[in-house]
Every structure is written in structure tokens, then in C-alpha cells.
Design goal:
Elements lengths: L14 H7 L10 E6 L6 E3 L7 E3 L1 H13 L4 E6 L17 H12 L4 E6 L12 E3 L2 E3 H18 L3 E4 L7 H5 L15 E2 L25 E2 L10 E2 L5 H11 L10
Parallel strand pairs: 1-3, 1-4, 4-5, 5-8
Antiparallel strand pairs: 2-3, 6-7, 8-10, 9-11
Length: about 260
Amino acid sequence: MQFPEYRARRVRKNESFRRLVRETRLTRDGLVYPLFVVPGKGVKKEVPSMPGQYNLSVDGAVDSAREAWDLGIPAVILFGIPEKKDAVGSEAWDDRGVVQRAIRDLKRALPDLLVMADACFCEYTDHGHCGVLTDGGLDNDASLENLARTANSYAKAGVDVVAPSGMLDGWSRPRANTSVAPSPRASPSAPTPCSAPPPSCRASRSRARPRWSAATRCTPCRPGWSSATPACATPSSSACARSWTFRHAAWRPGAWPP
């Protein structure tokens, strides 16, 4: 419906109307606190380009996450800075890597904290590109294999959400095909699959193939479940709703996982 039949100004004429129809609401429930983890112990080094943000060793990251949790922030996202770099960024999928250790320690200290992990290689490769280079160019398919290894390693460590920032063609397919065995270090509460999204997501039930937006794309992931399978500890709870929110935040209405 177009003007003159549709007149949106009428629902903006006063605060009561605006409160009623407002779609975007900023609360602590939607905040994610970034943590930049580095090797070592007792490390806290300010990032010059981001005042107030620090490179933290795993112990410091746990302390910072606990402060954020006490303030009501429900989630953190981890960015790793490895001990050494190589041409393919192999430390990204090392089960003893700094991000994997941070995931395990965070879930042990704060089981209900939502832990996300960035999946990209620009900080792990010695050339700074987001994948494998072949003949001076980015080898998309070889990079996809390594990204799947990384997502698998994060999931085994107990991560809740894999956040793929590496913009590679076909990244959703290897990620969706990645599954892991249960981690002995995972939260003791077994994940329960959600068979349906919460009511706010029910408009997105078409089986059409996904159409990605430019937004960051996150996939809920639990040890023992395919990362394409939404799961949460308590179905129909706010945590479940948040999980579905992250899963579908970048999908346009009418799209649904294949």
C-alpha cells in the first residue's frame, strides 16, 4: 500500500503510538561483549585503536566476562590472536589454541553465558588474508575446508555460536555439514533440540533456500549436534528465543535453512 492510502505519520504522532509500533528496542539482552584473547597469563594490553578494549590472556578474559555477566550482558564473542602464524592459519583449528581454551574456561566458570567465537583467518595467517593463498590469489575452496575444521574445533570446545566473518563463497555449506561428538568439558546440562522457533520467528517457515544479508551470520552450535541444528538448554525459554534470534537474524523473511 502506498501514499495516500498508507500514511505512516499517524503512528508516529505521539510517544504512545511510537512505543506501541517500535520495532527496534535496545536493551542489555541484545548486547554482545567482545574479548580479544592472547597467549600467556596475566596479560592485559590496551588496543591502541580501540580505547578501553584490551588484549587479554584467558584468565583475564574470564574475569572480564564475569564482570559483563554481572552487569546483565548475556553474551561474549571471542577473537583470537595466536602464539604463532603460518601460511594457512593452522592455529585456528588447534584444539589447544587460545580461543578453544578460552571457550572451555568460560563455559566452566559461567555455564549460562552465551559464548560466540569469530571464525576467520586474517589474524592467524602470516600474510594477513582470510584463507589459503595459491599463486598469489585466495583459494576459496581450500579455505572452506580449513574454516570447517575451525568451526568443528570450536564446537568440540563447547562454543554456543560460531560467527563466520570470513566472507567466502559457499561458507554456509561446509559449516552446516560440520558435526562433532559431545565434549567432556561442555556444560553438564545436555542440549535439547528446539523443534520450532518462538512465535516471533514463525513467519520464517518457508523451505526456500537461504538468502544471506550483509549482516554478520551466526550459527548456534552445541557439542554433539550439527551446527545446522538449532539447540538450546531450555526450549521455549528466553535463551531459546535468543538462540533462534541469532540463527535467523541474517535471514530475510520467508527464508529457512534447507
